[in-house]
Amino acid sequence: MTRSSMPVIGLTGSMAAGKSTVARHLAKLGAYVADADQAARRVVLPDTAGLQALVARFGPGILRPDGALDRPALSAIAFGDAAALADLNAITHPRIRAEMEAELSKARARGMQAAVLDAALLLEAGWQDLCDEVWLVTAPEEARLNRAMTRDGLSHEAAQARMAAQMPEEEKRALADVILENGGSKEALFAQTEAAYARLEKGTR
């Protein structure tokens, strides 16, 4: 993609690699962050077409008593069945992409110096075409598994299943323009982030 006056960073990373930590730091550096996780929650709020489509595909068992989406119930179905996961993505990904496009338009209208499309499934969903560069946050697999188990209360098997549903790490590395290694301290991660961001800013002047 030809670099625009507001470069767009596609920020991704395998589960528990530290992507959200980098996104927060980029926001402190002045970038506009469009969070795909937040968009994913918006498109399946009660009374949305997204939630209605999920119920039509997976049944009313994915709803809580108050009518909201029961995420653990849906995850239990989708992450154990490749066809179900494909259907889930087919329902949600186009809606999330539309939200991300609207967020990037908002950032341009505000004259932001850069924008970040923060999405764990950036590459799997094919959203890199919205970005000028793809930045991958990575960490050793065992460290990522341990973080995911601690953060999300997952069993080792459940954490592995979620990781297996994502693109393999080596494929992500091959597609990334910038690789941020998160195997050490937070300060080291931030130093890599700041160096990459300074280079990107310099390229737009």
From the structure above, extract its key features.
single chain, 205 residues
Structure in words:
- With 205 residues, the chain is an alpha/beta fold.
- 55% of the residues lie in helices and 12% in strands.
- The protein has one domain: Rossmann fold (3-Layer(aba) Sandwich).
- Strands 2-3-1-4-5 form a five-stranded parallel sheet, sandwiched between helices.
- It starts with 7 loop residues before the first strand and ends with a helix.
- 31% of the residues are buried.
Quick overview of this protein structure:
The chain has 205 residues and is of the alpha/beta class.
Radius of gyration: 17 Å
Assembly of the depicted chains: single chain
The major β-sheet equals: 5 strands, parallel
What is the assigned CATH homologous superfamily?
Answer: P-loop containing nucleotide triphosphate hydrolases
Helices and strands in order:
Elements: E1 8-13, H1 19-28, E2 32-35, H2 36-42, H3 49-58, H4 71-78, H5 82-109, E3 115-118, H6 122-125, E4 133-138, H7 141-152, H8 156-164, H9 169-175, E5 178-181, H10 186-203
Parallel strand pairs: 1-3, 1-4, 2-3, 4-5
Helix pairs in contact: 3-5, 7-8
